[in-house]
Amino acid sequence: MAYEGDHPAVATGLHDMACLLSGLGRYEEAITEGRPALNTLELLLGPHHAELARPLNNLGRMLEVSGETHAAHGLYERAVAIKEMHLGPMHPSLAASLSNVARLLQ
Questions:
Q1: What's the pTM value of the predicted model, to 2 decimals?
Q2: Cβ proximity of 52 and 40 under 8 Å
Q3: Where are the alpha helices (DSSP H) in 1-106?
Q4: What mean pLDDT do residues 38-63 have?
Q5: What is the DSSP secondary-structure string of 77-105?
Q6: Exposed/middle/buried for residue 18 (C-beta within 10 Å: 0-12, 13-18, 19+)
């Protein structure tokens, strides 16, 4: 099946490409791919959709490693809020996002 334009599958594919580039240490390229992917997902799914937590965390990590800690912090905080909203305050997945925020605040 082929998707065109603004479709969640296309944005998810771009996000996955960003993660691959990040894993290769190519952070600037990863951020260049990751930002529009996140923007597209936000537009298509809404700003509080549960599926946004993963790309928010991942782009936050890319920004953090690139030295953009202020931008990373904002993304991490949004991921925490989304996970709390959809999963509840005691979900194990929330711990990873809280750990990201804590690491930046050290």
A1: 0.91
A2: no
A3: 8-23, 27-45, 53-65, 69-87, 92-105
A4: 96
A5: HHHHHHHHHHH-TT-HHHHHHHHHHHHHH
A6: buried
